[in-house]
Structures are given as C-alpha cells and as structure tokens.
C-alpha cells in the first residue's frame, strides 16, 4: 500500500513539474482524419474534491446522514477485498452501526484529492468523474485500541453529481486487530 501511494505521489509530483503552460494545455487531440476527440482523461472540477473533503469531515464527526447526502440511492460501497454494500440504506445501516457501536473516534489527515474525468476507459473503470482520495486515518475503537493507516478511496459520480460507487482501499487486518476483544 505504501509503495502504491509513493508511486502515485511521485507521478503527481512529476506531472506537476512537467505541466505545460496554460496556453499549451488542451483536452482534445486531432486524429489523422482531422477529427477532434477528447483526451482519455482530464482533470475534473475541484467541486468534487470539496464533496470528498466535506464527506470525510461529516464521517469523522459521526454525522452519517450528512455524509450520505452525497450518495445516490443506488450507490455501491466496496472494499478492496471484494466485500460490498449495495444501496444507500445498506451503507447507512453499516456506517451508523460502526460509528455507534464499533468506532469511538475517527480523524482524517494529510488529505490529497484528485478529481479526474474519464472520457475513454483504459480498463474496467466507468466513464465520467472520479474522485481519487488519499488520507491518513487515526481511529480509536470501543475496544480501547487504536489504528493508524493510510487509505485510498476512489469515488465515481453519476450525472447528478452523486456518488454511485465508492471503492475503499485499506488494510483490513489493522482494523480487525484493533476491533478484536
């Protein structure tokens, strides 16, 4: 996980240092037939980063209902292990139980947000806006144990700017150890 984050951060730093001047930036390319087509991916509006930041603030404060306002009714919440929750109600029930009965406190820090618009999928990802998020989580559990780790989340937005897929990449072993009685 740390290597993945370091590779992504390295790429972002490299890309930031090699950005063309604004007048050179283009989001389209021309084909040999002279057609203009969009780039496979481009930066998306920063409003998606604010949605992500507000969501983490709500979740840290235990305001699950406020956090879920950004989700579509048919949202899917998935972990890197393949486990998932389907539907806003299932996500709400899970997180309300976690915040009330399992997690004593959450703190998110060192936040990095990258909103990206995928015009042409390069593998299985959906087209549209994705928010890539990296952050450090410090959690205290009802067991009295704590857990600290870096996490990554990828969130896809539907046409109404609601999150319809959230993929959470984390080390579940750290959480299991901290929640064991």
UniProtKB/TrEMBL annotation:
Alphabetized PROSITE patterns for the sequence: PROKAR_LIPOPROTEIN
Source organism of this protein record: Lacibacter luteus
Q: What is this protein called?
A: Nuclear transport factor 2 family protein
| Pfam families recorded | SnoaL_2
Q: Could you name the domain of life of the organism this protein comes from?
A: Bacteria
Spell out the SUPFAM superfamilies in the cross-references: NTF2-like (SSF54427)
| InterPro entries xref list | NTF2-like_dom_sf (IPR032710), SnoaL-like (IPR037401)
Q: Where is this region: Disordered?
A: 21-41
Residues of the SnoaL-like domain? 57-163
